[in-house]
Design goal:
The complex is a heterodimer of chains A (293) and B (93). Chain A is α+β, with helices and mostly antiparallel strands and 293 residues long. Chain A has 2 domains: 120 residues, no CATH class; 154 residues, no CATH class. In chain A, the strands form 2 sheets. In chain A, strands 8, 9, 10, 11, 12, 13, 14, 15 and 16 form a 9-stranded mixed β-sheet that branches. In chain A, helix 4 packs across helix 5. Chain B has a single domain, classed as Arc Repressor Mutant, subunit A (Orthogonal Bundle). Chain B is built from 3 helices and 6 strands. In chain B, helix 2 crosses helix 3. The chains are: A alpha+beta (293), B alpha+beta (93).
Amino acid sequence: MTSNETLELAPNEYRMDLGGTVIAVHCEPAEFAIGLGNWFSRPSSLAAPHIRLDLELIPHADVPHLPNSLVTTKTLLAGGRFDIADGLITGHYDPVAARGSIQAKGTLVRGALMRILEQIFYQAFWSARRVAGQDAFLIHSSAVIVDSQGFLFVGPSEAGKSTVAALSAQHHVLGDEMNLVRDTGSGLELVGTLFNGLFKAKRPGAAPLSGVFLLKQEPHHALTEAPLLEAIPALAAEMVPPVGLGEVPTKETLPQMMTLAETLATKSRLKFLEFLPDDGFWQVIAAEFGLEL
Amino acid sequence: MLIAMTSIFARNEDCPVREIGDGLVIMAPAGDVTHSLENLGAFIWKTLDGKTSLDGVLDAVTTEYDVERSVAETDLKHFVGELLSGNIIVQVS
């Protein structure tokens, strides 16, 4: 099945398109499908889904522990089931049928806690990507299109990804949380996703990936060489682990993240971006990449 | 940590390794830490083969690199201590 086909939406369905990898989410209660659209500020995709998930919100009286990661707190149970953070999210995924079910405690749809629930869709992406057969990955980053060229800004928490997005509001900001990179065969393409960060004016879009910048806050603006030995582990640390819904990390997971990082580093122009929190950094990028701002 | 020059160390086979240029990225067994080793560090790591004593490693280093032996010995012990605490090598004897 390809995402070029379209299928009518079910009343309780929200369909997300992550760079051509499409996930259908059938919600219980049904109104949550509208809630997902509102949360992501995107209408449902009409493209044919690669996987289908039944998402049920479970009422509960307890105050659950909220983990930082839905991957490292995940365990596999008998019968293909999984448990995340001691029952915060449970589920099942059948890779042959490309169908799964997820039960999430209702607290996860309250305000900013939705950003925790979002992470289950990172895992769904990896399950769907395998069905779609796409050569694509997700990376924690900010992404901006300028002059039809895509630029990716990468760094750990507090490195300045959301600051870069805010300082790039005059350009086409794809997002400041999670972006997708896919290998088209003729080069890497940068694609925005619906996942939310702090920057609210993100817009969907895609562009050839021209530059990847590892962020360094310094008292000046400069682009400097990024040695691969330093850059690849830094990029790998920001990759979404290639762990699908019915999977947990293995000893192969980190090497796979390194391979994705190596692809990104070697198929793009990679630099350190030393920057101050003002938009002057675009001048040095424009000079390096021949942009008309 | 006291490290004798007669000690023998081996690479931890549970650590995935990626060669990048002249260097190495070594992933810790827990999977959440990486170590980047540049030229000399990568050379030493490759020489820790489970058979060669640190004295032998030091011989190899001073043959390959222009460095004073006493300085190299101090740096080698410090470096091996770091690799050991990162669990990316193991002590054989």
